[in-house]
Target: GNAT family N-acetyltransferase
Amino acid sequence: MAVDGRDPEVFRRFYDVKFGVRQEELEFPVGMGVEEARVLMSGEHADVRADGLGLVDGDTWLGVAWLDWWLVGNTDTVDVELAVAPEYRRQGVASRLLEVAIGRARADGRRIVSGTNLAGDPVTGESAGTAFARARGFEKKHAELHQVLELPVDVSGLEQPVDGYELVQWREQAPDEWLGQFVELLSGMSEDVPTGDRTDEPVQWTPELVRDAEARRVAQGRFTYTTAAVHIASGELAAYTQMGGTPESPGRLNQYDTYVRRTHRGNGLGIAVKAPNLRAIQTGPAVMHTWNAPENTPMIAVNAKLGFRAVAQRTMWERVL
Ligand SMILES: CC(C)(COP(=O)(O)OP(=O)(O)OC[C@H]1O[C@@H](n2cnc3c(N)ncnc32)[C@H](O)[C@@H]1OP(=O)(O)O)[C@@H](O)C(=O)NCCC(=O)NCCS
Model:
């Protein structure tokens, strides 16, 4: 069955399988809430189109696939997330969903199917999903440590101003005066974030793409907190970090990007923006999630200082069609 998010009841059944599997396999289930996900799938966005497939027998949903069709950056790739209800595994459900997804990818002219296994063991990265991926001809391209931090935490000791820089903070929209430079930093992030051997075409951000992404997050019910550092002498926006969540899942917050412009690295700006952003966003008990390549040692060191610990390893896979 094709799923496009427009029928809330169909979407709820689809979502229940997708999120149910995450709850079953992850100590800290992560992902969008049902409405947040439905708005993403049913709406039109500048950077991605999402839709889904369900393998349904009568009234029973056996398994689902969520497909992300990138419209900027990796436009050769379709990203597929498969989830099969535990009682219907090892019966070829995921293989059938993958076959349909591949047929659609070919019809759309895509060259690569990619997927992420979220549930890998923190040390080995292995899971049912990695066994499936290997069996179906995918190659492992990258790994990221999933780290969590239980909030609230006292960050006052870590909030140290850096000489020559001042902080600016904003919520859902980047202020017009910073938009031009913020676009440069987002593009820098897309270029510099370690992606291992993944096929990765950096996104060239534009003010229009930023405004579109901001509007989508608001439509999804998300809130976003940004702290950036400005180099006072030059007026350059030197670093930023973003964290967010939704009232739909108040116990779960996400650390999104943290980026320091190349010419401003080595000055402690990573922690200088993260600590006050964390202070601003934390209102009570919640778990903050973040993912980083194990080789991204500076970022992992900053996270460890803040108290993050590793709980899983996610791995990214690709199959060339
Ligand atoms: C991974 C997952 C989607 C597989 O679904 P499935 O319907 O059981 O997969 P299939 O029956 O099509 O399996 C095809 C082949 O993959 C391999 N495989 C699948 N699960 C495996 C497991 N737990 N251990 C070892 N091999 C496995 C086998 O080679 C299998 O063929 P076989 O049963 O003839 O030996 C399912 O276990 C799941 O939902 N896991 C949690 C979510 C996840 O990891 N998703 C993948 C991320 S995109």
